[in-house]
Design goal:
Elements lengths: L3 H27 L21 H11 L3 H11 L10 H7 L1 H8 L8
Helix pairs in contact: 1-5, 4-5
């Protein structure tokens, strides 16, 4: 999608503060116990708009053409999600996703 990286960078900045707040609260709650926070490991097919109405709404919201959205949906289609875009493979194809999910975790909890 055109502008995908730019949109993701804006979202990363918007969500970073909230994510950092959430992670700090997790660490405080765990009170020194080990914590594992997994990076994004989505079943992408579950998040893509399936109905024409949903597709039209997301195109309008993202200011993209229906053709752009349908191409993205087609590109991300997984015949077997367990062998599809997961974890590191998703991060290789879309490095900004790994960056988006890991950068806010780099902080000290006081």
């Amino acid at each position: 999608m055109n502008g995908r990286k730019e949109r993701n960078e804006r979202k990363k900045n918007e969500e970073g503060k909230e994510r950092k707040k959430d992670f700090k609260e997790i660490m405080r709650t765990m009170d020194g116990l080990p914590v594992i926070i997994r990076l994004l490991d989505p079943p992408l097919h579950e998040f893509l708009p399936q109905t024409e109405d949903a597709q039209n709404k997301i195109c309008e919201k993202m200011k993209i053409s229906k053709d752009q959205l349908l191409k993205t949906i087609s590109d991300l289609h997984e015949f077997n999600p367990m062998l599809g875009f997961r974890g590191c493979r998703l991060g290789i194809k879309f490095p900004e996703i790994t960056n988006h999910n890991s950068c806010p975790t780099r902080f000290k909890v006081k």
